[in-house]
Amino acid sequence: MPVLVASDLDRTLIYSAAALALTMPDARAPRLLCVEVHEARPLSFMTETAAGLLTDLGDAAVFVPTTTRTRKQYQRINLPGPPPKYAICANGGHLMVDGVSDLDWHARVTGRLAEQCAPLDEVREHLLQTADPAWVRKHRVAEDLFAYLVVERELLPEDWVKELAVWAENRGWTVSLQGRKLYAVPKPLTKSAAMHEVARRTGATLTLAAGDSLLDADLLLAADKGWRPGHGELAEADWTAPEIVALPERGILAGERILREFLKAAGAAQ
Fold it and tell me: Would the pTM of this model clear 0.85, i.e. be above it?
C-alpha cells in the first residue's frame, strides 16, 4: 500500500533568501537550486541535495505539496522530481488533481465554512478597521476563503495580535503569524481534511507530514508521524505531541533533514 507524504512548503521544504539561515562560512554554504521565480526574480530555494532527495521521495511515496498558498502562488513553484498528482492549496480549500481543482471537494469545504464560521467579510472588515497602516503593507483575500496581512514585523504590536486571536477564536477563526504575513483562517479550513481525502483516494495506510507553523499543527496531528523544524511558530511555542519529532535544524538545512526523515520512514514501511 502506498505511503502518503503531505508536506508544507514555505519554510519547511522551500525557503526565501531571508529564511535560509545560512550560519556557516560562505565557502562552506550549500549549493542552492531556485524553485520559484516571481516577477522575473528568484524567490524560493532548496539545496541541491534536498532537490535530489525530493526526486527520490517522488518515486518512493505519494508526495502531496500542502500549502496555504493560493493556486496561482503554488503554480509558480517548480519542484524537482515527478510532478505530484495531488496538491493541497489554500490551506485545504482546494484539492488539486493533475493541476486542476476538484470542484466537488471545494464545494464541500465552502459548505462547511458557511455553516460553522463567521463570514469572511466580517473578518476582513475587522482587519481593515483595527490594523494600523503604519505597519500594514497589504491587505489580501485568498481564494475567497481567508484573509491575510503583509506587515512590517518589527512594528507589529504583540498585544494587537493577541487581541485579534481572541476575537477570531470567538467567531470560529484562527490567527497565524508567519514571517511578514499574518493569516486569519476559518477553523474548518484545514490541511488535515484534504490530506485524509487524498489518503482515501490513494489507499495510503501510512501518512507522514511536516510543517513549521500553527496552520500545520492539525496536519501534523492527523498524520501517523510528523516532523517540525527548529524554526517557525511551532518551534517558538515549543509545540510537540506524540509521534511528532522536533528537529534541531533551522533554515534551509531543515528542509534537507525533513526529506531524509520522509525517505527513511517510507523505506521502512515498504
Answer: yes
